[in-house]
């Protein structure tokens, strides 16, 4: 039960990280701040990668 709750919260955290990255990227481009834009892109990519890794992990558990 505990492991299942952790996976659910982890998935939610990864979605938040990807969304936060998307917002940072948007504001970086809007304010012409390349550092903020790059940081947002990095956060977005890492969040998406963690989501994909979680899906692969779940596929092998079944």
Automatic annotation (TrEMBL):
It holds the Pfam family CsbD. Gene3D superfamilies: YjbJ. Residues 11-61 form the CsbD-like domain. It comes from the Bacteria. SUPFAM superfamilies: Hypothetical protein YjbJ. InterPro entries: CsbD, YjbJ_sf. Coiled coil: none annotated. Belongs to the UPF0337 (CsbD) family. This is CsbD family protein. The lineage of its organism: Bacteria, Bacillati, Actinomycetota, Actinomycetes, Mycobacteriales.
């Amino acid at each position: 039960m505990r492991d299942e709750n952790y996976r659910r919260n982890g998935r939610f955290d990864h979605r938040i990280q990807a969304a936060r990255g998307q917002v940072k990227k948007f504001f970086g481009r809007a304010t012409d701040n390349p550092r903020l834009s790059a940081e947002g892109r990095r956060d977005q990519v890492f969040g998406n990668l963690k989501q994909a890794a979680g899906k692969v992990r779940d596929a092998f558990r079944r």
